[in-house]
Design brief:
By secondary structure, this protein is α/β, with parallel strands linked by helices. The chain has two domains: about 5-40 and about 280-385, Aspartate Aminotransferase, domain 1; about 60-280, Aspartate Aminotransferase, domain 2 (3-Layer(aba) Sandwich). The chain is about 40% helix and about 15% strand. It has a seven-stranded mixed β-sheet, sandwiched between helices. Strands 9-10-13-12 form a four-stranded antiparallel β-sheet. A two-stranded parallel sheet has the order 1-11. The longest helix is centred in the C-terminal third of the chain and has 24 residues, at about 280-305. It is globular, with a radius of gyration of 20 Å. Bound molecules: glutamine. Glutamine (GLN) binds near residues 17, 34 and 121.
Amino acid sequence: MPTISKRLDNFTESVIRAMTRLSNRYGAINLSQGFPDFDPPEELLAAAAEAGKNGPHQYAVTWGAPNFRAALAEKQSRFMHVPLDPDAHIVVTCGSTEAMMTAMMTVCNPGEKVIIFSPFYENYGADTILSGANPIYVPLHPPEFSFDRDELRRAFEMRPKALVLCNPSNPSGKVFTYEELTFIGSLALEYDTFVITDEVYEHIVYTPYAHTYIASLPDMFERTLCCSSLSKTYSITGWRLGYVIASPELIDGARKVHDFLTVGAAAPLQEAAVVALRFPDSYYEKLQQDYQTRRDLFLSYLEQAGLSYTTPQGAYYVMIDISTFGWKDDTAFCEWLVKEIGVAAVPGSSFFAEPVKHLVRLHFAKKTETIREAGERLCLLKNKL
Ligand code: GLN
């Protein structure tokens, strides 16, 4: 038999998705893979029902239905403070997963290097390797998840083609400050490097933090491929609607990659999602407040359970430290947690390039009652250990 591609030797299956399968097997509360257990906005569901009945049911324009791109350009221009042309600056993709892969394949030649902050959402490593590029990992040091400016500069001295920036950050909950972004941007300019962002948590930021789009900094729009999606903002992770926003030159390339990867995102769902993209600012304010409430409630249970954690500034994950309970292996802990406590988490080691095994990721994009039930289960930890 011929052998399968050697590319596959360099990354493993997603641990996040494996934890969801384990959670389902044991009927646990799934705080591993980050997705909500509450419904999307009703207007959006009504629009989806309408599109289901009346279409469109055939291919949309490859790089995105015109009305979807028009609504997205209007919304993102408002939040990014960058004027966007729906016909020049956008390619609509199947989730930000495809957006990131498309961005990476648009800019990277085989053998080139890509800077990735560690811990990182596991797709970035696989995206880099599938593009034929090689990752350079720069640590975000726990528990604050700060980076060392000299360490980052040394990575740029290796002449990377691109840097991946997840902001607000999964799994750490870090929100990069304006000053940090200015520093990263200045290195990208000095070393002539692209920045590929993952900004899917752009609207989930906790007071007093604020999200800055690196593409909005001076001279950065031309070298940034801004990837995001509707998944987290409108609680529709299964719709797989994402996009890349970038300069016309980069979008020309990205359209080609995207066309041959997937042809296009689901036409009826693009049609329906126009309704959501036209929501007023009050929608995003409420989303932020609701997540703030969920975060604060969940953190109060972690306190009660005696767990030490890093307070997330954005996104909907929290990293807890299991070393205080004497556990040395995060994977063994997560397997035990599913079976004995009935809560699924993701072992922190699946996010780190470094040998870090004392952290575990939990998420709180859940209904109040789910958070309460999971919190009460976590409070039992003390007695079981
Ligand atoms: N972004 C989510 C997470 O980190 C879900 C990822 C996925 O499985 N597509 O858990």
